[in-house]
Write a structure and sequence with these properties.
This protein has 12 helices and 5 strands. By secondary structure, it is an alpha+beta fold.
């Protein structure tokens, strides 16, 4: 008996953990592929923004796996074995979404009803199937709505679930309560609780690792102050744009943007206000990207930014006018003089060329834009200097 119990326990644990890991990492993969890189991937409960279709699919999958779990119940004595098919319901809500949890619950209830119909189960089994599964779903939905942290959420769910099951046990077995039955319920609850806690602990550990990886990814890709792409990311995007021009003959534009009087801002108001100017300006720069996902905005120096975007024919995109208008809306402090914020911009449009002498590296293209910036500075600041240049494109 003991070996059978251990074997069933391990099998159930593996199935539950594997199922929820499929949910979690499928959701993570979807979010990485569909969310903007600037957005946070994880929320406080580890939930994701998923398509409705994917939520339905994951809910059905988890529901079917819960049914498989119910077919491998854990024997603890000569009485009713432990059925932990309800555990994935909670995890599908808390680490997935309410929709996933509801679909999981419906799938599990329907598959168990089909099994009961085929095997000729008693009405008590049907009632138990509806009540306990529904109660755990309700508890899980309330926990997510309250936005409880993982440990508190797990403790709350387990406590309320055990109380609910104890009430139902007393209701159905009140006239049969003996020491042996009470001891059976105690063992039942201990096995159920241990599986719940082990699964919750492993999931939280996995999420913690994912968050750490996400943080390292942020440090490698984004500027810490402004949350824009950093200089390393800038050269990566510049390489991509250059490669596309050389292979597909697609034009692109590069703008280098510099605050004209940023040292004066720091000297007058202090570095904290200077940092605030950069952060709020960065938010306005990001407004540019909302209209086109191919526009990349990067911080490449202290008060220097770069914008890479696709050059359209007859484009009326006035970068200086757009940014100046936006920067005039900044509300730094009541005493802050917005007139101190002016920009100089070096803008180059890289056009495909069939002449091999126009071969350029990414650093060459950056140097051209940087020279255009300093021409704008030398011409009196608060202006844009714009020019076309050419890059050799391979013949098709």
């Amino acid at each position: 008996m003991i070996f059978t119990m251990i074997n069933s326990y391990i099998v159930n644990l593996v199935i539950i953990i594997s199922t929820i890991f499929v949910l979690y990492f499928s959701s993570l993969k979807y979010s990485l592929e569909h969310d903007d890189a600037e957005n946070e991937i994880l929320t406080s409960t580890g939930q994701f923004n998923l398509s409705f279709t994917l939520q339905i699919f994951l809910g059905i999958f988890i529901g079917l796996m819960s049914f498989v779990i119910s077919m491998n119940r854990i024997p603890i004595d000569n009485m009713r074995p432990v059925d932990v098919r309800y555990l994935p319901v909670y995890f599908s809500v808390y680490y997935g979404s309410p929709v996933i949890g509801i679909v999981t619950t419906i799938t599990l209830i329907l598959t168990k009803c089909l099994e009961y119909f085929i095997t000729g189960a008693s009405i008590t089994e049907y009632i138990n199937n509806f009540l306990i599964t529904g109660i755990i779903l309700f508890i899980s939905l309330v926990i997510v709505k309250k936005k409880l942290p993982p440990i508190k959420a797990a403790m709350t769910c387990l406590s309320l679930t055990l109380i609910s099951r104890a009430i139902l046990a007393i209701f159905f077995f009140f006239n049969q309560m003996e020491n042996e039955l009470l001891f059976h319920f105690l063992l039942h609850f201990l096995v159920f609780s241990s599986l719940f806690f082990i699964t919750a602990w492993l999931l939280n550990a996995a999420i913690s690792i994912s968050e750490s990886i996400h943080n390292y990814r942020d440090y490698a890709i984004f500027d810490n102050l402004t949350k824009l792409y950093n200089k390393e990311s800038f050269f990566f995007f510049l390489d991509l744009a250059r490669q596309k021009t050389t292979t597909e003959k697609v034009s692109f534009s590069l703008a280098i943007i510099d605050f004209d009087n940023f040292k004066e801002i720091n000297d007058t108001y202090g570095h904290l206000i200077g940092d605030r100017v950069l952060k709020e300006a960065a938010e306005l720069f990001l407004d540019i990207t909302k209209s086109d996902e191919n526009i990349r905005v990067c911080r490449i120096g202290g008060d220097e930014f770069a914008v890479i975007f696709k050059k359209e024919e007859n484009s009326s995109f006035d970068l200086l006018e757009f940014l100046t208008k936006k920067l005039n809306q900044l509300a730094i402090t009541e005493t802050f003089d917005k007139n101190m914020i002016t920009l100089s911009i070096g803008l180059i449009h890289i056009l495909p060329s069939d002449k091999e002498e126009n071969k350029k590296s990414s650093q060459d293209i950056f140097n051209l834009a940087d020279k255009a910036l300093y021409i704008a500075k030398n011409n009196g600041k608060n202006q844009i200097f714009e020019r076309n240049d050419y890059l050799y494109a391979k013949k098709s």
